[in-house]
Design brief:
- It contains four helices and eight strands; from the N terminus they run βαβββααβαβββ.
- It is of the alpha/beta class.
- It folds into two domains: 97 residues, Ribosome hibernation promotion factor-like (Double Stranded RNA Binding Domain), CATH 3.30.160; 65 residues, 2-Layer Sandwich (SHC Adaptor Protein), CATH 3.30.505.50.
- The protein has a four-stranded mixed β-sheet with strand order 1-2-3-4, with helices on one face.
- Strand 1, helix 1 and strand 2 form a beta-alpha-beta unit.
- The longest helix has 21 residues.
- The chain is globular and about 65 Å long.
- The relative contact order is 0.08.
Length: 198
């Protein structure tokens, strides 16, 4: 496994770089030598001193990307947390069974669809479940994270309200924010409109 450590608008001290490389070396037992771990360290001055040091990790396994982020009072503390998170993600990824249809089965399904003999789909089902760690962040950070990944929505814990929120891209190019309230009623949004769908 190859570990790449870089700083975002900062020079990474050698001791921190070596610490990161040592920490990520423990993942080598799970991953092969084609795996890259990209560790980006940054400092967010607007956060409290106990979580101003940020470690973002992108792990590329067999062409699939896993991401994780942690904050701490030092880069070493943030790295300790993020390595644990990434290790759990890597274990989940490795243990998840890979189900692939056989080419003959795929052809038979396509033939039935083409000649109209395929069984109609009567009920939609949940066919995939994703589990991921979420960190408290401000709305601006959620927008940045969503944009960096190219997603149309982003689930996060709002650092101001300490509640789960869903940020989404609207058709008009702006952003919407869903703030679920269990058992609650519709509320007014920030501009006085009815909050709910749309």
């Amino acid at each position: 496994m190859r570990t790449i450590v870089r700083g975002k608008n900062l020079e990474v001290p050698d001791r921190v770089r070596q610490y990161a490389e040592r920490k990520f070396a423990r993942l080598e037992r799970l991953l092969d030598d084609r795996t890259d771990a990209i560790v980006e360290l940054s400092n967010e001055a607007h956060r409290s001193a106990s979580d101003a040091h940020i470690a973002d990790v992108t792990l590329v396994i067999d062409g699939r990307t896993l991401r994780s982020r942690a904050a701490g009072g030092s880069y070493q503390a943030a790295l300790d947390v993020v390595v644990d998170k990434v290790e759990r993600q890597a274990i989940d990824y490795k243990e998840k069974p890979r189900i692939r249809a056989r080419p003959e089965e795929e052809k038979a399904i396509l033939r039935r669809i083409a000649d109209g003999t395929a069984e109609p789909v009567t009920e939609r089902q949940v066919v995939k479940t994703k589990r991921f760690a979420i960190e408290p962040m401000f709305e601006e950070d959620a927008v940045t994270a969503m944009e960096e990944l190219g997603h149309d929505f982003w689930v996060f814990v709002n650092a101001e309200t300490e509640r789960i929120s869903v940020l989404y891209r609207r058709k008009d190019g702006h952003y919407g924010l869903i703030e679920p309230v269990v058992g609650g009623e519709y509320t007014k949004d920030r501009r006085g409109g009815r909050n709910g769908r749309g």
